Amino acid sequence: MELYIRPDYEIVRNESRCTVCRVCERQCANELHFFDPATGRMRADESKCVNCHRCVSLCPAHALKIVKTDDAYRENANWEAQTMHEIYRQANTGGVLLSSMGNPKPYPVFWDRLLINASQVTNPPIDPLREPMETQLCLGRRTVKAERDEHGRLKDTLPPQLKLSVPVLFSAMSYGSISYNAHESLARAAAELGTYYNTGEGGLHRDFYKYGKNTIVQVASGRFGVHKEYLETAAAIEIKMGQGAKPGIGGHLPGSKISEDVSRTRMIPQGVDAISPAPHHDIYSIEDLKQLVDSLKEATEYKKPIIVKIAAVHNAAAIASGIARSGADIIAIDGFRGGTGAAPTRIRDNVGIPIEMALAQIDARLREEGIRDNVSLIVGGSVRSSADVVKAIALGADACYIGTAALLALGCHLCRSCHTGKCNWGIATQRPDLVKRLDPACGCKQLVNLITAWKHEIEEMMGGMGINALEALRGNRLMLRGIGLTDTELRLLGVRYAGESL
Amino acid sequence: MKIRANGMHYAALNAAVRDSEETDIEISGCGGQRYLGAGLADRKIFVYGTPGNALGAYLNGAEICVDGNVQEATGDTMNGGVIEVHGSAGDATGYAMRGGKIFIEGDVGYRCGIHMKAFLSQHPAIVIGGRAGSFLGEYQAGGTIVVLGLHTDGKPVIGNFCGTGMHGGEILLRCETLNVALPAQVRAERIEGPGSEESAALIREWCARFGRNAAPYLQAVYYRLTPNAENPYRQMYTPN
């Protein structure tokens, strides 16, 4: 007999509003709503509910709401209901707990303990509506020797750069983990915004080659979909060493999820597992990493910046220092609150460090060693708003990757059930009937709206500080003050406490 | 075109190969230059000496013949073409190759054919004359690896952990007895001859390239390794 796990949520149906139109039944891929012919009313099996709010959002009569159950176990601060349920699940199945999206545990969010400066009197603020603000930036290696030709003119020796109109890129999400329509939304939005989206390690769909100049392609240990044309089409190539949601863990897309279309994109047979283990089996050192960086540069004739993506882990600063010497042009760092389509719960919730700490330490280390301009830094792993972007840049980032925020703009309700493949919002699924719920034209528009709004907000915050170019904000930690932080946290972040003047 | 590579930087050598108007290129004095032929499609490259790591990485149809040994990661993520080595090869030969063929006259190091995969009409192959190091065909997802075991030192044709994580493709080992332990995910079957016309063709091609008589290889005993369908590589997960 299986241990009973009581549902976490209750579906509350306002019977006086419900018209039995059965929209909820048709919309729920978890098949929990059903018509009861005996009573002529709708009913629900709440044990199947993931609380994605699809039914609530689409109910034309506004008859539904989902509430956290108030059914309570005996109170115990040590053994919370979730902890008990996890034990029951494992006792029932013997399986490794699998979760999705970012770490939901109540760890400190340092973004929320950093405050941004503004100018008063001596250094006036700038009104971004009337004065130009520079939010354009380039990512890539900046340290080059100035060389002149025989006429004394400067030679263009600048290594390839990525040019962004706004310091936000869409982070790596593979076709397979998210749908065709989600990818199309991201690609179109990146092109419209003048930024980049990232294919993840699942290859690049033929239909999306036309967005190549706004595409970053990934090379991971399994090398799925990696071939000459894939590398050449992209604006930049990202070597995936790690991912914030699951540092030290690889990817395993089961054969059942390898549809015909996904198989073509990954360049593997349909129905065969796609295994992408955590280690690259040819990389055991910075020298080995340099070899992969250089081989990609050779294969693309030194025309593309190479990004190396790592998870934020304990020794991130030392690792980044090595990467900055490997010939990589950009380092991407992914914090432990970063999202994923599927990760073992224990890894997601317990491995890695906050991006704020990793970023502050990496930037400081690279500066100390005089190699900060060897590379640009992109940070991700829960950048939730324009304020987080401004704080990240002030802590030393060049730009931010957003994944979860972008999915939210596409309609994701953070039910954290991506691993089931039954996303009711058409994002983290390959089921055609669900995928078509996401209209790429609408998705693109929503993403463009989000980033456009963030850009305005970034300009306003910069203007308030009296800063008119991102370049002047980067690594400018005097623009930040900490609140509710310990001395150690302040030291690691390299910021003063709120109220502490120069 | 002939290139004397003595002391040349790899970037300069590769640029010369890439920019050559002739498709047939002979490189002499090669000494450790890396990434030779990376991503190339329409070249026939003949190399005297020892190319460096990642020879023919992302190779896309070009043919490379080496009169000498090759180092690590030969044919990394190769998509098409042929690499023929009149000598031995280092570790991770044919890493994640998806198409084309690699023929090695001598031995290969560790992790040969790791992540090798097949796709539609692309069916990559590696044929090794001597013996292979440990982790041969690790995570193999497709394609064919043949180890002919020409060596005379009496050691097994493969090292330890052959086919760990294998979930597709096949490995053919020419040997009378398989005195090496295999992981549970791998099934071994003793067969007379190479088992299929495709494998026989690969062996004939290897013999032709290295001037051997094919008959004894085609009549030999092979062990054919494939993923064990009854014991698939998986970890059981519980949605949480």
In short:
The complex is a heterodimer of chains A (502) and B (240). Chain A is of the alpha/beta class and 502 residues long.
Could you please describe the fold and organization of this structure?
The complex is a heterodimer of chains A (502) and B (240). By secondary structure, chain A is α/β, with parallel strands linked by helices. Chain A has 3 domains: 9-95, 2-Layer Sandwich (Alpha-Beta Plaits); 172-355 and 362-460, TIM Barrel (Alpha-Beta Barrel); 472-502, no CATH class. In chain A, 30% of the residues lie in helices and 16% in strands. An 8-stranded parallel beta sheet of chain A has the order 9-19-18-16-15-12-11-10. Chain A has a 3-stranded mixed beta sheet with strand order 6-20-21, with helices on one face. The termini of chain A are far apart. With 240 residues, chain B is mainly β. Chain B has one domain (2-227): 3 Solenoid (Pectate Lyase C-like). In chain B, strands 1-2-3-4-5-6-7-8-9-11-10 form an 11-stranded mixed beta sheet, with helices on both faces. In chain B, β1 (2-4), α1 and β2 (24-31) form a beta-alpha-beta unit. The longest helix of chain B has 13 residues, at 197-209. Chain B is globular, with a radius of gyration of 18 Å. The termini of chain B are far apart. The mean pLDDT of chain B is 94. Classes of the chains: A alpha/beta (502), B mainly beta (240). At the A-B interface, α3, β5 and α7 of A face α1 and β12 of B.
Which terms summarize this structure?
heterodimer; A: alpha/beta; Alpha-Beta Plaits; TIM Barrel; three-stranded mixed sheet; 16 helices; 30% helix; B: 240 residues; Pectate Lyase C-like; eleven-stranded mixed sheet; 3 helices; 11% helix; 30% strand; globular
